[in-house]
Amino acid sequence: CFGFPLSIFFIIINEFCERFSYYGMKAVLTLYFKLFLHWEDNFATAIYHTFVALCYLMPILGAIVADSWLGKFKTILYLSIIYMIGQAVLSVGSINDLTDHNRDGSPDNAALNIALSMVGLIFIALGTGGIKPCVSAFGGDQFEDDQEKQRSTFFSLFYLSINSGSLLSTLVTPIIRASECGIHTKQECYPLAFGVPAVLMAVSLVVFVIGSKMYKKVKPQGNIMLEVSKCVGFAIKNRFRHRSKEFPKREHWLDWASEKYDKHLIAQIKMVLKVLFLYIPLPMFWAVFDQQGSRWTLQATAMNGDFGFQIQPDQMQVVNPILIVIMVPIVDSLVYPLIKKCKLNFTPLKKMTAGMFLGSLAFVAAALLQVQIDKTYPVFPAAGQAQVKLINLGAVPATVQFQPQLQSVDVAPNNGTGYMTFEASKLQSLHIVSATLNKTEPLEQLKKQRYTLAFKWSPTGINSTFIQDNVTSKPENGKSLVRFINNFPVTVNVTMGDMDFGELDPLSVSNYSAVPKPDWSYTISASFSQNTCTVGSKEFGYGGAYTISLNDCVEKKLTITYFEDIAPNTVHMAWQIPQYFLLTCAEVLFSVTGLEFSYSQAPSNMKSVLQAGWLLTVAVGNIIVLIVAGASTIQEQWAEYVLFAALLLVVCIIFAIMASFYTYVDPNEIEVQFSKEEKEEDKKDQDDNEKEAEADSQL
């Protein structure tokens, strides 16, 4: 088909669906841990990076199985089935109603949801990691030796399918997650957000199987990684056996393998080890880079995503693939040629060093942004403290005295105050004075909590209610919270959109409820005595909490007052773009250049060893985040960002020093030299054999 084997189109479609499946699931994973499983930030981050590390450890196993045992086709097929099962199990594990027998909106047996989720993630890691090194190589196998141009075009299409799959899924799945679904209670739709990637994985598998009769299937020919490992292992063992001084030293420790292994192989491994030595500092870059899906997503939950349309916190990750698609051609066709024209020696290792530096700057930007976000957080009571807010629902001004003689506050009609902090043990009562009337509200054993005193003057006396506010932090999911207080003299039934707040007696308060779409306006309805009054709500924004008082009904129109308990998110998500831009620049300089450099410095038959080493650095980088998230005692998030920025900067300096001692080689020249030496040795052996034969004939 157009000069290409027809089979490669099945492989490209398969890769698009698989990447959609993986990145779609991964995009919403951190918020799933935090909001559905209710894990705290550090634990959610640790589990997320454990999963990513596992995904990057599995390719080594997949490559060994494919090259030494099953072959690429069967490896892809069997692991894709495991992968698909994992996606399905994860989707089932995220069903809220699975164990919600009392229909209260929370699973009665959260352990079952957690167990299913973890089993699903292990299967996914095994599947996606195991097939990672096989699919592209299997595609390359479909071409003949004289189809180099078509093979190159295939790899371009292949990587385009990866980027388009990840881009599309990172846009779509967060929208699905933010929608509501459920049998008994409507909640964020994680089953569908994981279910769609599961369906795409099934499609990927079906497409791959349909093309099975067209594939060129190369038989397993042994894995070079195993050969390298055996050679290195033998050299170490042999050196240890001959460690005494009576044995002469050898030029290189790998030369101790020469008794068993070919000199050519040993020379190739030496070249590879020189590159792998440079890999030692690289995990720190990946420790920073992969936090886009964890810490940066959690950072976005405390920000305002109103771009004229609402961006979900986990959708901000899409900035990276968009910038990659834009920047790679610009850097290749404009920036690098310009640097070359300026006669600057911008070697691959210098590019990688610059990439690490930019990665460090990206986390400095994230830290500065976090400082601004922290300024918008409400201050909650510390140990031994209580906070009190006043709401005057009456038409007469009032003064509230915090007894004994702590503070006196004036409150205007139909108005309120912010939260005021007191030592809980000292605050004994609140004395309300309004017009000629007064009332004392006794307080007993205040906890480390927020409280609201709502009161109202009437000719017969002052009515009041003292409420414990059950909110201890900003809403975790970025949505806003709303509650109602009944300022009518009769009992009213309150609804807002599809949310039913139930019947409220005079001066009673409902519980807080999350607003499904905080950027929408809802109809607020109050029903009493066969009368129904309505009014449209304002847009609540994200991350706020409000008390709404129901005041009066005039010609079926409800009059209400908003009291802001927690301010909504004010720092805009667009402020994350600079840090994404810096990190994407870092990726272009570091990741693209790193693989290109690695491949240029090693023999062609050793590329899989370098790919395994590269993927291993990604896995180790995620393990670093796992350790820091699990063991760190840092309380402030901005300080953790600074820590990672500082660590990467130190590693960047170490890498620059290591790189300055590196000598670039041309593997092809070395291969030619070896080939020449081998021919000379063969000729010498042949001459020796001829001389021996001649001597024998003379005898």
Automatic annotation (TrEMBL):
Pfam family, one: PTR2
GO cellular component: apical plasma membrane
Presence of the UniProt keyword Cell membrane in the record: yes
Membrane topology of this protein: Multi-pass membrane protein
Keywords, alphabetical: Cell membrane, Glycoprotein, Membrane, Peptide transport, Protein transport, Symport, Transmembrane, Transmembrane helix, Transport
Any one GO MF annotation of this record: symporter activity
Extent of Acidic residues compositional bias: 687-699
Biased composition (Basic and acidic residues): 675-686
Biological processes per GO annotation: protein transport
Highest taxon above the source species: Eukaryota
Catalytic reaction equation(s): L-phenylalanyl-L-phenylalanine(out) + H(+)(out) = L-phenylalanyl-L-phenylalanine(in) + H(+)(in); N-acetyl-D-muramoyl-L-alanyl-D-isoglutamine(out) + 2 H(+)(out) = N-acetyl-D-muramoyl-L-alanyl-D-isoglutamine(in) + 2 H(+)(in); glycylglycyl-L-isoleucine(out) + H(+)(out) = glycylglycyl-L-isoleucine(in) + H(+)(in); L-alanyl-L-aspartate(out) + 2 H(+)(out) = L-alanyl-L-aspartate(in) + 2 H(+)(in)
Family the UniProt entry places it in: Belongs to the major facilitator superfamily. Proton-dependent oligopeptide transporter (POT/PTR) (TC 2.A.17) family.
Assembly with partners or alone: Interacts (via extracellular domain region) with trypsin.
Protein name per Swiss-Prot or TrEMBL: Solute carrier family 15 member 1
Organism of origin: Promerops cafer
